Structures are given as C-alpha cells and as structure tokens.
Amino acid sequence: MATHQEITESLKAFAQEYSKNQRLKTMNRDWDRAVLILADDIESAHTLVLKGGELSFSQGKAAEPDLTVISNSEILADMFFGDITPTEPYMNGTLRIIGPEDDILRLDFISLLIWGE
Amino acid sequence: MKRVVSVSLGSSRRDHHVNTVLLGEEFEISRRGTDGDFERAIALLGELDGNVDAIGLGGIDLYLYAGRTRYAVSDGLKLVHAVKKTPVVDGSGLKNTLERETIYYLRKHTGLLPPGCKVLMVSAVDRFGMAEALVELGCEMTFGDLIFAAGIPYPIKTLQELEEIAHKTLPEMVKLPFHMLYPTGKKQDIQDENKVEKFGHYYHGADVIAGDYHLVRRCMPGNLRGQMVITNTTTREDVEFLKKKGVGRLVTTTPEYGGRSFGTNVMEAVMVVLLGKRWEDITPKDYLDLMGRLDLKPRLLEL
Asked: What is this structure's pTM?
C-alpha cells in the first residue's frame, strides 16, 4: 500500500516529465481536461488539469472531472512513477477509468509517451 | 472447389460471396461480418475450422509494425487461436509485398504519384510497407496514426518519428481491446462527425489519401477537390460514398471480383491455397511470383 504522500510524489514526477516534453505539450494543446485520481484503499484524491497543453496537479478534488481514474494506492503511485503502464491494470480491472473511451485512450497515450521505452 | 472464407469483425452489411477461377482452380470466396461481436467471430472460426481451405481474418490486424519490429495484437491472436486445423491469415504477409508494389506500379505506369506530392496516410503501422514505399518515392508524408487512432492532432512527418512513437506506444496499445484502436462493427457504417470537423482539413490539404478504408472513411469531409484515394477493400456503396465526398480517383490494391475489391486477408488466404505452403514458409518472393502469374494489378477507377 502506498501513502497519499507517495501518490503526490508520483504525480509530481509525472508532471515534471510532462513539462520537459515539448512535443507532448504540442499534442495536447486542444485537450483541456480535469482528471480526478482516486485511491480506493486509502483516503486520497488528486486532480490533474490539462489546459492549453500545460499540465498541473493539486491535492483533493479541485474541479468537476472529465475523467476519473480509480485504483489502489500502490498501482496509482507505480503508474505515475512510470514503474508500470496503465494497460495491464486497466485490462485486468484493477484500474478503472470513468469517462469517454476516446479520452481514456488519449490518457493512455500520454502516459506511454512519457514513460514508454 | 476451394473454399476461402473471410471472418470479419466488421459490419455484416458488407458480406459478399463470389465464385471465380484462379490459375485453373475454382474458388468459392466469401466474407462474413460479425458486426464487432468478438465471441460470434470466435464461434464462427470454430465452425469453419477444418471445413474450408483457408480463412482470412478481417476487420482486425494480427500484427502492427514499426520498422522491422512487429507487435502482435492480443485480440487478433485470440481469434487465431480459435483455429486449429485450417490456415488462417490476416493479410499482413501480403500487404508488405502487394501494397509496396501498388505504389511502385503507380509511379512507373501513371503520373499519379509525382515526387513531392502530399500524401495523408491515415494509419501507417498497419501497412508499413506502403508507408516505406511512399517515402522512398519522395512523397511529402503526413502519417495520421495519432490523429485518427488516438484523436491527438499531431501529424507525424517522418518514418523515423513514426517508429519512435510506435516503439513507445505499440507494445502496450496492442494489449487493448481492438475496438478502442479501430472502428469495428456498426462503427464502420457511420462517420465520426466530431473528428470529420476537427480533422477534415488534413484531407483537404493532401493530394493523395492512403490507408485502411474504414479509417479513411470515418473522418472524411465533403468538398474534396478530386484527390486520389489508395486503399484496400471497397464495395459499390463505398465507391458512391467517395464520389459524393469529391474524391476524383480510387486505387485499390486488390483486384475487383463481382463488383468489389476484397481485403488483403482474403487475397492472402487465396494465395496460401494456391501456393500450397505453410504460411510461415511463404516468402515475399513467393507472393511476388504468384502476383505475376495471377497478373494482379491495382484497380484504378475514375470517379
């Protein structure tokens, strides 16, 4: 089990990697979304906000989400640290993403373009 | 009589049946769509296994390519594993040869692909051979893999960047349900109006639009200015659709039988029967030689 703090750190690492990637910012210029990240085994909520290609995050539920990502704290931390990809937990049901399928796919792409080999 | 059946995850509205003679061998070729129903496709494959001479898999790829690396599509493998006795192919073996040759043919025998012409290839990882041939001939490429598969408005301009992005994303993408990456079933009968509006300008800006027909169709805007479309499977309705959109010329990589061009999976299944070899043992040269004997040429249609 990861802590709320560890999830925060993982999101920080994710946001830092994203900010270094100019191509990803270009790709996402059109995609303004609020993504709520919820752990289902501890009290933990974060909000990722994509706006004009820039990505930021905050603790707690900061906006009405377009997408909601729910999993256990360990998976969330591992995923945002890039230790695992979202595909496997998504396919085996331990990671749930609520939102339009196109947005789910796009979020997956962003994660792979940050952390992919 | 040899029987070849294409089982497709696509719409059953496109089902077709034809009898033909190839190199003196009688063939009954049919296509059976399962409207995106994966379980129905598995059941149908089980029924056909051992009762036909070859099976083609349509509406899905077994492999996606980035350069020399190929990535197996999980859903495609599940379908293949439902077949134990009959040779089963998805067209990827033939695509690399046939579609390359189509591009070379157009350069050599027509003035339709001059160096520097602007080509929108809606997806290249499913037909990397065609992409390489177009680059080799000096076309100005826009690869739409991210645009049309993921909705990311980022045109990829070089094979190098395509490969780099593909190597990062494909190893995981191929594990997702195929319908998340490609229109299957009823989605093949309708256009994605949001994407038509958002991405239609890529079509307007191109001289040539190339790639999988369903991807080409799904986001195609109206008021095109007579561009050429290079694709695979088209029915009479598809030809009418393209004409209405303002397409000027259609090139299909597979020949016409009974008013439509079949998919490469069907042609590859027919070739496997004619070659009488195991699929794994068939080389690009085998396909090339057979294409020569069959006098296979792309179909060019003025619309």
From this structure: 0.90
